[in-house]
Structures are given as C-alpha cells and as structure tokens.
Design a protein that fits this description.
This protein is α/β, with parallel strands linked by helices. It has eleven helices and eight strands. The strands form two sheets. Strands 2-1-3-4-5-8 form a six-stranded parallel β-sheet, with helices on both faces. The longest helix has 25 residues. The two termini are about 35 Å apart.
C-alpha cells in the first residue's frame, strides 16, 4: 500500500514517515525537496500516481509576530494559495489517480480560539484568522472534490514534541532561562497532542470511517499546569507568579498583546474522538520526551533557527 505524505520533511512528517514504514506501508514523501514550494502551480499528477492513500500535511503556517497589527493581503493570499487551492488540486489529482483515501491535517482553530467544554466535530466552525479560514475552505474544497474517494479530516489542537517550533519552543526557552511567568492564577483547560500520538492517529485514520475527528492526548491541562509539567521534565524551576488574571489582561491590553493573552488564558478543549484509536503516550510522558529533545539539541545552532 503506497501512502503519499506531503510535508514529509516538516515537524509532523519527520515523525510520520518512519511510523508508516514501521507499520508496513510504502511511503512516497512529497516534501519541499520533492515537489518544491507548494502553491497553486504544483502539478500533483505524478506524485499521486498508483498511490492508495494521501496524507496531506503540507501547509503555510507562518505565525504573526508580536506587535503585528494583522495579516497583510499578500500573506492572506499565500494562506489561500497553499492551504486551500493547492489542497483542492491535490485532492482532484488524487481522485483522478484512483486514490482510495485522503487524510487532511486541518486544525482545531477552524472551530475558534476558545471553548469551555470539549468541542466535537458536530459543533459549528468559527475560524477567526486567515490561516484557520484557509484550512476550513480547504476542508470544504477537498470534500466537494472527493467523489467516491474517502476523506478523513483531523483537527488537532497544539501539537508538540521533538523538533517543535513556534510558541511552544519559546515557552521552553523561557522556562529554561528561569524567567518568571505571571500565569500562576490561570485556571483554563487546553487540549494538547503529542506528535507521536498524532502519528498514531493518522495511522488510525487510514482505517477509521470517513469523517472529521479531533484527536488529543486525552488529558487537558491549564497553562499553569503545562508550565509546571514542562519545568519538572526540564529539571528547571517553574517560576509562576500568581497575579489576578484581570490585571494580567489589562497589562496585555496595554502592551498590545491581548490576542496572545486570550490564547494563553482561554480554554480550548476537544473531545479527542477517533474510532479505534487511543493515545498511547500520556501528556506527561510526551512532555518528558520533548524536554529530553530540548536538552540534547545544540542550542547555539538548532534553537536559534528553529522558529
């Protein structure tokens, strides 16, 4: 069984391809080195020829930096070109080639930024930025193009693990530096997903009934508890300061970081449902594995260029 993996050289792809091979699948990587930068112009026909399944991981996931006033028109167009149009063209090429199953890695952000109860696939969508909107449009476009091809959409929460980048890596750097964090009084709940669990979920999605699923580690943490678990795994002190969340919110507003505060202090919970699959790695063990990776990398090179 030949499985095409787009984004094979990315954060998730680097873990998924060996997992698929270990499970007995023939993997056809379609990373940047194989197909170039993904956009509207990519011809997917040769990539999907004779494949049984496609796992579409590749995406434009650039994050807006602190202090940014929004997303430029060019950036919004890039999201749509890579995440929506290229995904639709890949799906159409897969249908043409007779691919039986298409797995699309979307995002929980399609359902909004906050929820005080575990969201399910039946809850309304609420994409709030161009990235989430492009992913939602891709879900619809792939489904519309699929015909008899089976489609499984996965909407994971924050994914972490070895080689993680972005905000999670910045949090680890902050903990490692021993800097205080005024988040000790935050009582939110957020779902997480260890990259190893996500890879197993993708393997499960090759057999699960077609549909939309929201895999998680199975245990939600508050931001303060996440910091405590990470600090323990990193053998560093958790320098949490308990300040009224209202005061922290006011300071965030003054600093122009209200959006960041909402993500840090708000809850976002998912139901974790995927038929036939359960996460094999606990969130505690996942964080320990991530901490071991962090401790072992060359911080003068790898970490400086990681995000």
């Amino acid at each position: 069984m030949v499985v095409v993996v787009t984004g094979a050289s990315g954060f998730v792809g680097r873990s998924l391809c060996p997992a698929l091979e270990e499970a007995g699948f023939a993997v056809r990587p379609a990373g940047r080195d194989d197909v170039g930068d993904i956009g509207c112009e990519v011809n997917w026909d040769s990539v999907v020829q004779s494949a049984t399944a496609v796992v579409h991981l590749a995406a434009h996931v650039h994050k807006i930096r602190s202090g940014s006033q929004g997303t430029s028109d060019d950036e919004t167009a890039r999201y749509r070109a890579v995440n929506t149009i290229a995904s639709e063209r890949l799906a159409r090429a897969a249908v043409k080639a007779g691919v039986r199953r298409f797995i699309f890695l979307s995002t929980a952000k399609v359902m909004g930024e906050m929820s005080n109860y575990p969201l399910t696939a039946d809850d309304p969508v609420d994409p709030q930025d161009p990235y989430a909107q492009s992913k939602w449009e891709a879900e619809q476009a792939i489904t519309a193009a699929a015909g008899t091809m089976e489609v499984v959409v996965l909407r994971p929460p924050l994914v972490y693990g070895p080689n993680v980048k972005g905000n999670f890596l910045r949090l680890m750097r902050t903990i490692d530096a021993g800097l205080p964090l005024p988040l000790g009084s935050i009582k939110n709940r957020r779902s997480l997903l260890f990259v190893g669990n996500l890879c197993e979920a993708i393997l499960g999605a090759l057999k699960a009934p077609p549909g939309v699923y929201l895999p998680t580690d199975g245990k939600d943490l508050s931001t303060a508890d996440l910091i405590r678990h990470l600090a323990k795994a990193m053998d560093r002190p958790a320098r949490l300061i308990s300040i009224s969340p209202i005061l922290v919110k006011i300071c965030a507003l003054i600093a122009g970081r209200h959006g960041e505060f909402k993500k840090v202090a708000g809850s976002l919970q998912l139901d974790g449902n995927l038929p036939g699959w359960q996460p094999s790695t606990s969130v505690e063990d996942g964080l320990r594995t991530t901490a071991r990776w962090f401790a072992g990398v060359d911080k003068k090179t790898s970490l400086e260029n990681a995000d």
